[in-house]
Amino acid sequence: MDKYSFNDRPDAARIAMSTSAAQSNIDPTVVLKFLDFQWAYRRMQREYDHVLAVNNLSESRFIILMFLSQAPHQQLLPSAIAAKLGSTRVTVTKMIKGLTEMHWVEKHPSTEDKRATLIHLTTLGQATLLDYLPRNFAAIQTLFGQLTAAELTTLDQLLSKINQGTVALKKEMEF
């Protein structure tokens, strides 16, 4: 997906003109808050992606290392990683290849199924993860640390409603 800065975001008046032209009854304030939410999320994600990149990680690499570190014997089948990641096996295979080249994971034949290959977290992979985790939590603290407990509860409730709307939109689009 292309990443734009959206420096020329519309104001309420421009949104009102657009909604009127589209013969929509939506409150322009709702559209404005949607754009504000998108802008804040994209900016936050860019900064978090930078924290990951400085540590030679991507979000997917980090998540795979976390999955492996928490798995029994620090190993999983590629299909299990794909399922946990919500990704295709092909995509995970490419990511595992990169992690193998970095010596963060190794492939081992399964002792239970000769056709299967297990992905095992290496000592270097574990060290990389343990080195990154304090930076990860510091970044999260910087992003969310200004929110009070009550605000976090409100955020949780609001995100729940947004997730409900997302599910509803998906159902609408399945026609």
Task: Write a short abstract of this structure.
The protein has 175 residues and is mostly helical.
Explained architecture:
With 175 residues, this protein is mostly helical. It has two domains: 1-54, no CATH class; 56-129, Arc Repressor Mutant, subunit A (Orthogonal Bundle), CATH 1.10.10.10. The protein has seven helices and three strands. A three-stranded antiparallel β-sheet has the order 1-3-2. The chain starts with 11 loop residues before the first helix and ends with a helix. Pfam families: MarR_2. Residues 30-164 form the HTH marR-type domain. This is Transcriptional regulator. GO terms for molecular function: DNA-binding transcription factor activity. It comes from Lacticaseibacillus pantheris DSM 15945 = JCM 12539 = NBRC 106106.
Per the CATH scheme, the topology name of the largest domain is Arc Repressor Mutant, subunit A
Strand order of the largest sheet: 1-3-2
Number of domains: 2
How are helices and strands ordered from N to C?
HHHEHHEEHH
Mean pLDDT: 91
Helix count equals 7
Name the CATH superfamily assignment of the largest domain: Winged helix-like DNA-binding domain superfamily/Winged helix DNA-binding domain
Which helices and strands appear, and what pairs or packs with what?
Blueprint: H1 12-21, H2 28-54, H3 59-70, E1 75-76, H4 78-85, H5 89-101, E2 105-109, E3 117-121, H6 123-144, H7 149-173
Antiparallel strand pairs: 1-3, 2-3
Protein name: Transcriptional regulator
Domain HTH marR-type: 30-164
Organism: Lacticaseibacillus pantheris DSM 15945 = JCM 12539 = NBRC 106106
